[in-house]
């Protein structure tokens, strides 16, 4: 268990309580508050639990603290398990439909008596959902769209969820006797934004006994996170984890490890042209090895690492993130692969929120957390007034916030810098929520869409184009508005957006929150080649959110970005000069 998992459990308990008939509003609110409290808690939660230091933490009462302790002691919370067991399955399924909350789920269940998503879909098609109190035709249509979206993304999981599961299993397996090498493979290693399952490759000594292999596989299949075993042998075992994710463990002798790791890292699209290259050189490659073929006979080419495999094929090493058949084979063969950006290249954080709007921590707390992580600046971007649901600031509040920032900057001196910014709403017509006179007082501006998602592609594109052309807009935030596995992005012609951003010198962020990862990596290389600077932004609403930068790095690497392509690899002085030059050009 880690802090994110326990926080998610608190949020889930609140939702499950809301789905329960006759539930207590105060109890629901207590778990919602607990989730917020944990999200803003600094430090290792496991250590705080072990040392008994949670008592007195605002938002965490005695009962909730006991349940947090139970989570760390037993890897689950019995109260949560009971709520899941006592909640009708169709309610749990409806919970996954974008935009359908507990209140509407309860109404549908109580009045239509549906027992499956298929029955709900039919009820929508029969026009019965539209006639429920508080629903209507538009809500019915959105539910149908949500059901379609769910079916398209069935059995997929966010990267961070799968990564956390894999990390726990890897840590447990790494300590087992006989393990030589161990690595996550598959789409998770390639840093895809969502994954279907987890692949892991483990090696033992080539001469290891069957007893060693069986012991490792038995240990794997008996882990607390394993809900079901779907296959078990000496070379491969398959399980379903408690999160629902399927996981395969492949066990090989160490001499076979690099070939097996490479094969099961994928992608299939990468392997097809790579095999063609091997064949053109009189070789063949599979999960058992790289072989020289002469007179119908195959001779193994010894490789200790994946790097050796690519070298034998007269190529530069292709990082896992690039193995998607987007030109990496030719680039590696011609020694033209980029040096990909790394997390250590980042100098500061842009796009973060504080208690001035909907953040959970003060400006000082956010700044100190950034300093603790080695960053030298924080670009604060609390919401503008149109985002009233998020405590958006009016111009007077923005001025008062600026005064607080000035005081903190004076205190921090050259150690750390806070930039005055805003996440300014892009209104329906593409104008800004603040006028230019207000925006001109800020160091930089992130402009984002938070409303009117149902406009046509032409309207939505023109809306973004007008924002990009505004002289005070420096960065476009989460440019498609997508929530991975939650809702599709609004329709927009991203090619036009990239062209306009390049023309006006406007940046487009990678929103690093694992539920967004927006701009999509498939557009990044084009944006890079157009000269657009791309900040990696956590969109942090709590201290823990700052650490989401690492997910943005994965997407940046998939999009072929180098350090010089990423805005916040600039130091503070260079960053301020960039914003100054951009505005002076206007």
Automatic annotation (TrEMBL):
What UniProt keywords are attached to this protein's entry?
DNA damage, DNA repair, DNA replication, DNA synthesis, DNA-directed DNA polymerase, Exonuclease, Hydrolase, Methylation, Nuclease, Nucleotidyltransferase, Sodium, Transferase, Ubl conjugation
Q: Fetch the Pfam families from UniProt.
A: DNA_pol_B_thumb, HHH_5, HHH_8, PHP
Q: Where in the cell is it found?
A: Cytoplasm
User: What CDD domains does the record tag this protein with?
Assistant: NT_POLXc (cd00141), PHP_PolX (cd07436)
Q: Which residues form the DNA-directed DNA polymerase X domain?
A: 2-324
Which cofactor names does the annotation list? Answer: Mg(2+)
Per the entry, what this protein does is: Repair polymerase that plays a key role in base-excision repair. During this process, the damaged base is excised by specific DNA glycosylases, the DNA backbone is nicked at the abasic site by an apurinic/apyrimidic (AP) endonuclease, and POLB removes 5'-deoxyribose-phosphate from the preincised AP site acting as a 5'-deoxyribose-phosphate lyase (5'-dRP lyase); through its DNA polymerase activity, it adds one nucleotide to the 3' end of the arising single-nucleotide gap.
- Provide the protein name: DNA polymerase beta
Instruction: Tell me what organism the protein belongs to.
Output: Dictyobacter vulcani
């Amino acid at each position: 268990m880690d802090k994110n998992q326990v926080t998610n459990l608190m949020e889930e308990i609140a939702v499950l309580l809301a789905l329960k008939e006759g539930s207590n509003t105060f109890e629901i609110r207590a778990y919602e508050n607990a989730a917020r409290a944990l999200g803003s808690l600094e430090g290792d939660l496991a250590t705080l639990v072990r040392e008994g230091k949670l008592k007195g933490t605002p938002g965490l009462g005695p009962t909730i603290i006991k349940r947090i302790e139970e989570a760390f002691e037993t890897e689950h919370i019995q109260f949560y398990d009971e709520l899941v067991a006592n909640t009708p399955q169709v309610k749990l399924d409806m919970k996954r439909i974008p935009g359908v909350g507990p209140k509407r789920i309860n109404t549908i269940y109580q009045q239509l008596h549906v027992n499956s998503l298929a029955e709900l879909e039919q009820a929508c098609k029969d026009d019965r959902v539209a006639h429920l109190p508080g629903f209507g035709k538009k809500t019915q249509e959105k539910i149908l769209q949500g059901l379609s979206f769910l079916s398209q993304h069935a059995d997929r999981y966010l990267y961070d969820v799968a990564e956390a599961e894999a990390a726990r299993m890897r840590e447990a397996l790494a300590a087992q006797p006989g393990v030589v090498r161990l690595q996550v493979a598959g789409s998770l290693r390639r840093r895809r934004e969502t994954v279907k399952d987890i692949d892991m490759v483990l090696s033992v000594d080539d001469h290891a006994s069957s007893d060693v292999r069986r012991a490792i596989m038995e240990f794997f299949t008996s882990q607390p996170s394993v809900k079901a075993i779907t296959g078990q042998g000496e070379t491969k075992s398959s399980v379903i984890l408690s999160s629902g994710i399927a996981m395969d463990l492949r066990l090989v002798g160490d001499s076979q490890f690099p070939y097996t790791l490479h094969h099961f890292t994928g992608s299939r699209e990468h392997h097809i042209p790579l095999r063609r290259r091997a064949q053109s050189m009189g070789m063949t490659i599979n999960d058992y090895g790289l072989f020289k073929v002469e007179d119908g006979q195959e001779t193994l080419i010894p490789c200790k690492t994946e790097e050796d495999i690519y070298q034998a094929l007269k190529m530069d090493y292709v990082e896992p993130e690039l193995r998607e058949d987007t030109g990496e084979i030719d680039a590696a063969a011609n020694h033209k692969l980029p040096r990909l950006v790394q997390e250590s290249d980042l100098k500061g954080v842009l796009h973060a929120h504080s208690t001035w709007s909907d953040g959970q921590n003060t400006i000082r707390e956010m700044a100190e957390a950034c300093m603790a992580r080695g960053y030298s600046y924080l670009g604060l971007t609390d919401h503008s007034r149109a985002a009233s649901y998020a405590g958006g600031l009016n111009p007077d509040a923005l001025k008062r916030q600026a005064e607080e920032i000035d005081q903190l900057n004076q205190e921090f001196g050259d150690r750390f810098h806070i930039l005055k910014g805003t996440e300014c709403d892009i209104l329906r017509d593409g104008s800004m929520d603040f006028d230019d006179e207000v925006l001109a007082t800020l160091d930089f501006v992130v402009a984002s869409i938070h409303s009117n998602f149902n406009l046509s592609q032409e309207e939505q594109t023109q809306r973004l184009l007008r924002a990009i052309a505004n002289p005070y807009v420096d960065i476009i935030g989460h440019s498609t508005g997508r929530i991975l596995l939650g809702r599709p992005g609004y329709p927009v012609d991203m090619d036009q957006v990239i062209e306009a951003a390049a023309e006006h010198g406007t940046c487009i962020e990678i929103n690093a929150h694992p539920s967004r990862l927006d701009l999509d990596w498939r557009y990044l290389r084009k944006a890079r080649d157009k000269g657009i600077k791309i900040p990696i932004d956590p969109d942090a609403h709590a201290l823990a959110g700052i650490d989401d930068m690492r997910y943005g790095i994965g997407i940046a690497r998939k999009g072929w970005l180098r350090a010089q392509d990423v805005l916040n690899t600039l130091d503070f002085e260079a960053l301020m000069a960039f914003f100054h030059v951009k505005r002076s050009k206007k």
